[in-house]
Design goal:
414 residues, alpha/beta, TIM Barrel, nine-stranded mixed beta sheet, eight-stranded parallel beta barrel, binds ligand LLP
Length: 414
Amino acid sequence: MNYFHYKDKELYCENIPVKQIASKVKTPFYLYSSATLTHNFNAFDKAFSGHPHLICFAVKANSNLTVLNLLGELGAGADIVSGGELHRALKAGIPAGKIVYSGVGKTEKEIREAAKADILMFNVESMEELDAISRQARRLKCRIRISFRVNPDVNANTHPYISTGLKKNKFGLPMSQALKAYKIASKRNELDVVGIDCHIGSQLIQVEPFVDAIRRIKFLLRELDDFGIKLDFIDIGGGLGIKYQDEIPPQPDAYAQALLSEINDLSHCLIIEPGRSIVGNAGILVTKILYTKDTGEKRFYIVDAAMNDLARPSLYEAYHEIIPVIKTDTHLHTTDIVGPICETGDFLARERPMPDLNQGSLLAVMSAGAYGFSMSSNYNSRPRVPEVMVRDDQFKVIRKRETYARLLLGETIW
Ligand code: LLP
């Protein structure tokens, strides 16, 4: 469900033609639909409404202030992985009491900042990190709430780069070390041991791995109970997939039901950390064909967006649907859609059946709202593109296109 649709032959975002926005903002740009974001968040919230829960949006998927603010207003918390993300989440108005901090390499400075802000909890991934958190708590003379991220060793059946819950991955504590870790932490006065956490991977299109993970967590909870360690939160991470091509991911309802049926006898607050499934299909990347070229061997559309703007195709060979902003009825030809960057790996799509389009035509790269702008870079000294939000028949640039001056910010000639 999203609010990008054709009216006659023209692509709209909610109630504005995409072309109209392109003529004002110029290409390339990211375009987000607030109605889609709202719909997606509310679908999760409703699906989990039968159980105490907190939806901590994974800021890494899209860290734009307006996006975070909108989700915060709807009741979202945040899952953060850096001091920068903490800064953004707080600036966007997300209450510290709804922020969880994940990640294997939190620095002491980052730990101190988050502790000072009094976030809900740290998801601790190693015993040395636990020591660092203890040190900061003693230094700040406060108690810090923690949970351990455990690695349930389940196969998420997803791309190896975004699978995180296997023993060989760097994330979390092995289940076999978790009990000992909890015993150590619960003896420390400066720590409040409140939860258990896992995150098994991203773009999962089955519920079974989540169910497997939660069963393993329940097993550990019973063991902890035997030692008098009682927790308030079960954080199952994020990872629910979306449809990019022909995947059929579970809807939030089915996902919630599968999880809740495992824990409905427990009173713990369930935390989920969805990123992609909230923001993925709420955003597109709009780009223009600069040149068309036929080498005899291949047809190319050379567009003004590149791998620095949307890294997913180059990095993971990820599929994003690409559609013309103005539909045509011409024959389809196999085409590569490539950017201006000087690397063969700079493509948005390969061997794609595309209609005949002229220089200057606009294309929409679909499902680009998650890990799109947030993974963009300045490679080839390309200013990062603007982000635009639509609300019904209005739009606003919520992040300006970078200028050349901004590209050089902080640099000196020495
Ligand atoms: N929680 C933790 C601890 C995570 O590491 C992640 C994602 C999430 C939540 C959110 O997962 P989601 O619901 O979005 O699947 N750049 C890759 C995805 C990397 C995901 C990393 N962790 C991509 O473009 O596919």
